[in-house]
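Exercise 3.2. Students should predict the tertiary structure of the chain below and write it as structure tokens, then compare their answer with the key that follows.

Predict this chain's 3D structure.
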Amino acid sequence: MSRPAPLLLGLDIGGTKSAALVGDAEGNVLARVGGPTPADWREAVEFLKSSLRRACADHGCAPSDAAALGVSCGGPLDSATGVVYAPPNLPGWDAVPLKALLEEEFHLPTVVENDANATALAEHRWGAGVGSRDMAFLTMGTGIGAGLILDGALYRGRRDLAGEVGHATVWPDGPPCPCGKRGCLEALASGTAIGRMGRERYGDDTVTAQIVCVRARGGDPDALEILAEASRWMGLGLANLLHALNLERIVLGTLAVHAGDLLLDLIRRETERNCWPRVWEGVSIVPAAFGDAAQDKAALAAAREIFSSGA
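Answer key:
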């Protein structure tokens, strides 16, 4: 008789909203409980614990029935110890021993993973990265975060900082970036950057990246020029990444998904233009698969990794 498929638990921790999940090893969400993230980290941890118990109750299981618990959270953090170090979207979370607190409560193998890394795992295992050995997942939202899959495995780097493509300098004299540098890819090609360019171009403080995309789809020449400029910078950044790592696939999320080929075609063209032909040959740049469900899938993907490894 075959053994029942393992249950996995997940926590997606965001600056405004968080969610607790029960899922399976194929990334299917079986139960979900979400709500606003409390401002105080101690209250937030208690909220996460109670939400996880409620999600389990909704599915008719106990936390102890699960094989592992995965947490998707903004960095910086230490995935080995599970300590969270003051992410920008979680003020006050300074040196929070999240893994230890959750393992003490639920007695499950637990991993705390950078959200971009966890999303890269989800896309590689179940989404737009399936079938690739070497890929990168990049967001194009408020910032540009990235997760790397190299030779089929997540690559974190020495201090969980691999994949900070958004803070690679592509224009030394460019606009300031929130990180304190100038001319970072994030300052030139993120959704935030596209919104800024739109506000400057139209003289309208209400313009967002989404509005720029809508206007571009309608043929507005200013909006089309803004997307072309952002794509030039994004193509340069992706070409540098391809030259460094010789990837076969790049998965783009957030704005690249919402804008579709309006943006993706420009990015593909600019990336090819900046690549050696042999580096570009066989590379695919594709939209992420999961949209608004990405962070749910990310938390479950993190749990799946420790279950699969037997950690």
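Discussion points: The chain has a mean pLDDT of 94. The two ends are 25 Å apart (CA to CA).
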